[in-house]
YheU family protein (Vreelandella alkaliphila), 90 residues
Amino acid sequence: MSRFIEVPARMLPPETLDALLEAFVTRQGYDTTDTGAGMSGWVVELKQQLERHELIIAHDLELEMTEVMTLAQWRSFGRDLADDEEEGDY
């Protein structure tokens, strides 16, 4: 069984999805004045990116954590994790 699963955005309650997206905006250091609508503007933009499959929501079954990631972050994270497992660091 894989440690990570992708979670479809439609499976999350709206307030949970918004909180995940707000955490992503904060973690990425986005300027919330860029959209003209503050944080809510970024949440709308990120929902559109989820619909276009430019972002994913990944859940770590072991740590019971859920994160929003770009596809590049997900691919990099997957490679980094595989490297750690090969080295016995996991």
Notes: The two ends are 16 Å apart (CA to CA). The longest strand covers residues 55-60. Residues 71-87 form the longest helix (17 residues). The chain has three helices and three strands.
